[in-house]
C-alpha cells in the first residue's frame, strides 16, 4: 500500500498533550528563535539576549556579544542614571504642554482685554464727536446741550460780532460730564477744552432758535 503524504499543515496554537511531540517542537522552535535573534544582530548591530527554559526546566541562552554582558547592561539600566534619561523626554513634553496651556489662557485674557478697550475707545470717540451727527440722530440730552450751546453762541455773536465764530462748550452742560448715554460710561467731554466748529454745524446767525422752555 502506497504511503500517503499530507504535506505541511499549520499546527493549532494550543499546548501539545504528548510529551514527546512537545520536546521535539521545542528543540526545533528554539533553534529557529536563536537563528532569528542572530540575524537581527547581524542586520541591525544590536546587542540581544534570549533566555529559554525547556519543559524539563533546562535553561538555554543566546547572547550577542554574550549573555552575561547583556544581563549586566540591563541591570545597570534599571538601577543607573539611564532611568532618568528614559523619563526625561516624557517629563519635558508634559512641562511644555502645561506651559502652552498657560500661555493660551493668557492670550485669551489679553484678547478679551483688547476687545473691551477697543469698545471703550470707540464709545469715547462717538461721544466726543456726537455733535457731528445729523440732528435726527441726536437724543434728548444731546439736543438740549446743542441748543444751549447755540443760544449762548448767538448771544455772544450779538454782543461781540468781531470775535471768531468758535465757542468753547459751556462747563455747565451736563455738569461737565456726559453720563449713561453710551453704555453707562462716564466720560468727560470738556476735560480737553473741546471746541465746536460753527461752520461744521452750518450755523446761520439769522437762524431763530426754538424756545423749548415755553
From TrEMBL:
Keywords: Coiled coil, DNA-binding, Nucleus, Transcription, Transcription regulation. InterPro entries: MEF2-like_N, TF_MADSbox, TF_MADSbox_sf. This is MADS-box domain-containing protein. One of its GO terms (molecular function) is RNA polymerase II cis-regulatory region sequence-specific DNA binding. Residues 6-66 form the MADS-box domain. The keyword Zinc does not apply. Transmembrane segments: none annotated. PROSITE patterns: MADS_BOX_2. Its main location: nucleus. It is found in: Nucleus. One of its GO terms (cellular component) is nucleus. Residues 90-126 form a coiled coil. GO terms for biological process: positive regulation of transcription by RNA polymerase II. It comes from Eutrema salsugineum. PANTHER family: MADS BOX PROTEIN, OS02G0164450 PROTEIN.
Amino acid at each position: 500500500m502506497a504511503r500517503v503524504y499530507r504535506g505541511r499543515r499549520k499546527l493549532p496554537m494550543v499546548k501539545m498533550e504528548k510529551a514527546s511531540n512537545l520536546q521535539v517542537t521545542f528543540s526545533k522552535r528554539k533553534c529557529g528563535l536563536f537563528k532569528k535573534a542572530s540575524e537581527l544582530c547581524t542586520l541591525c548591530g544590536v546587542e540581544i539576549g534570549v533566555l529559554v527554559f525547556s519543559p524539563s526546566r533546562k535553561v538555554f541562552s543566546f547572547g550577542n556579544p554574550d549573555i552575561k554582558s547583556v544581563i549586566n547592561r540591563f541591570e545597570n539600566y534599571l538601577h543607573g542614571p539611564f532611568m532618568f534619561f528614559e523619563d526625561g523626554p516624557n517629563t519635558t513634553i508634559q512641562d511644555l504642554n502645561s506651559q502652552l496651556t498657560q500661555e493660551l489662557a493668557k492670550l485669551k485674557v489679553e484678547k478679551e482685554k483688547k476687545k473691551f478697550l477697543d469698545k471703550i475707545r470707540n464709545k469715547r470717540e462717538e461721544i466726543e464727536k456726537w455733535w457731528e451727527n445729523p440732528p435726527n440722530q441726536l437724543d434728548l440730552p444731546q439736543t438740549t446741550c446743542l441748543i444751549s450751546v447755540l443760544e449762548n453762541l448767538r448771544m455772544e455773536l450779538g454782543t461781540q460780532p468781531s470775535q471768531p465764530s468758535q465757542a468753547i462748550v459751556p462747563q455747565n452742560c451736563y455738569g461737565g460730564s456726559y453720563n449713561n448715554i453710551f453704555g453707562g460710561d462716564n466720560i468727560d467731554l470738556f476735560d480737553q477744552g473741546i471746541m465746536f466748529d460753527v461752520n461744521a454745524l452750518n450755523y446761520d446767525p439769522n437762524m431763530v432758535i426754538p424756545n423749548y422752555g415755553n
